[in-house]
Amino acid sequence: MNAIEAASSERAGIRARSRTHRRYLPVVLLATDVATVCVAFVLGYWIRYTFGIGPAIQDQVSLRQYEPFFLLLMMVMLPVLLFKGAYRHRLSRDLTDDFTTVFSAATISIATVIVVTYLTHKWQYSRAVVVYVWVLMIVLVFLGRAVYRSLQAFRHRRGWGVRRLLVVGGTDVAKMIMQSVMSRPDLGYHLVGFADHRVSPQLRDFGRFRAVGQIADVPQLITTHAVDDIVIALPAAAHEEVWPILALCEQHRVGLKLVPDLFEMSLSRVEVDDIAGIPLLDVQERPLRLIARGSKRCIDLLLAGLLLTLSAPLLLLLGVFIRVGSSGPALLRQTRIGEGGRPFECFKLRTMQIDAEDYEASLAEMNEADGLLFKMRNDPRCTPLGRRMRRLSLDELPQLWNVVKGEMSLVGPRPALPEQVAKYDGAQRRRLEMKPGMTGIWQVSGRSDLAFDEMVLMDIYYVDNWSLALDARILVRTCIAVIRRHGAY
C-alpha cells in the first residue's frame, strides 16, 4: 500500500469513527433526559412529603403510589421531545431552543397527567407534588441538556468528534455560512475550505477561508480532505452543477445541505406558505419597518441612558487614570461616518499616545489587518492602561452618549472613518443605510480577528435582515464576547 492509499484509508477510518460518534449522540441525550426526569420526580415527592414544604399533610402517600403518575409522565414527555426534534442534530439549535422545547414538553406532559387522572376518577396525587415536578422537570432537564452541550463543545474545541465540512460556492451566502461555522466551534465542524463556482485560472481566498478548488474538483476534494459534510450554496445559474454533487455525496456517504436560491433575499421578508402541500416562499412587504425602527430607538435611549448613568463613576475614574498615566486629554473625539453618509463626532477613551496617528505610516508594514483597516495585536502606541481597556472594550463606553444623541445605535454596522468610506465600492456603501452601532454581528463573531471583507459582508447582512430579535441576540453574545476577550486588541 503506497502513501496515498494509506492516507486515504486513515481518513476513511476517521470518517467512520465520526459517523459512529454522531449515531450514538441521540441515545446519550435521551438517557440524560430520562435521568433528569427521574430526579425531578423523586425530588418533587421528597420536597412535599419528606421536607413537608407546602400545606399541612393529611394523608401520607407512598412513592410507590406515584408510579402511574411517573410512567404516564414519561410516556408523554419523551414522545413530545422526539416530535419537537429535540434529538435531531440541527445547526441552528441553541440553549434558547432547548429551553422552549423542554418547557413545552414538560407543560404538555403535566397537563396530560392532570386530564387523564381526572377523567379516570383516580386523582390521589398532591397538587403541590404536581407543581414541584413540573418546575423541577423544566429546570433539571434544561440543565442536563446545558451540561451535555457544554461537554460536547469542550470535545469539539479539542478536535474530538469533529466533522470536516466543505462549502461549494463562492457566493455571499456561502461566505456567511463559513463565517458562522468559524464563529461556532461548538457546532463540531472543521471547515476545510470552499470550492469556488467561478472559473478562474487562479484561486482567490476570502479572508480566513481557503479556496481549495473549483466545482470540477469536488470529487477529488471529498477524498483528499476526508469531507464528512457538504453545503451547496450556488447561484441559480449554476443549478446544473448540483446533481453530480448529489450523486457523489450518495456514493461516498457524505452529508449534504442545500441552500435555497431565495436565501439571498432578506430573510425578514420571507414566510413559508403552501398550496395543496406544495411549499411556497411568500415575500412580504414590510409596513411595520418604521414601527420597528421607532422601537429600536426607544430601546437604545432606555438602555444607553441607564448604562451611561451606571458607568459614569467608572468613566470618571478611568479618565483620571488616563490623565495621570500619559499627557493629553482623556476623551478622544473622532470624525466617523454615520447613517446616510453624515459625519459625526464619535467619543472614545484615549488608549494611545497623543501623537499616535503620526506614527501610523511608519507601522504600515506591521499591519495585521487587510483591506481598509489598520490593526496590530501588540501596537506599540498603546498605553499600558489603554491595552487593558481595549481588552474589555471599556474605551468604547463614551459612545453611549452618541447613542443617546441619536448618532449611533447599540447594535449596527461598524462606524467607519471618512478615509475608509471614500474608498468604498457600491456594495460596501450599503453599510451606511443604518446607524452605526457600538456592537454588531462582526464584533460577536471574531472581532479584530476577522478580515475586512468579512466585516463588510456581516454588516451588509445585518442591514438586510435586521430585527429587534436579532439585536437582542447580538447584545447577549456581545456580553459573552467581552467576558471571553477573544479577538479584542
Overview of the molecule:
- The chain is α/β, with parallel strands linked by helices.
- It folds into three domains: 155 residues, no CATH class; 102 residues, Rossmann fold, CATH 3.40.50.720; 196 residues, no CATH class.
- It contains 13 helices and eleven strands.
- The strands form four sheets. A five-stranded parallel beta sheet has the order 3-2-1-4-5, with helices on both faces. The protein has a two-stranded antiparallel ribbon with strand order 6-7. The protein has a two-stranded antiparallel sheet with strand order 8-9.
- Strand 10, helix 11 and strand 11 form a beta-alpha-beta unit.
- It is globular, with a radius of gyration of 27 Å.
- The chain starts with a helix and ends in a 5-residue tail after the last helix.
- 28% of the residues are buried.
- The model has no long low-confidence stretch (mean pLDDT 80).
Write the layout of secondary structure elements.
Layout lengths: L2 H48 L16 H17 L11 H25 L7 H31 L5 E6 L3 H12 L5 E8 L14 E4 L3 H7 L4 E4 L9 H11 L2 E4 L11 E6 L2 E6 L5 H37 L5 E7 L5 E7 L34 H8 L7 H7 L3 E3 L6 H4 L15 E3 L12 H14 L2 H17 L5
Parallel strand pairs: 1-2, 1-4, 2-3, 4-5, 10-11
Antiparallel strand pairs: 6-7, 8-9
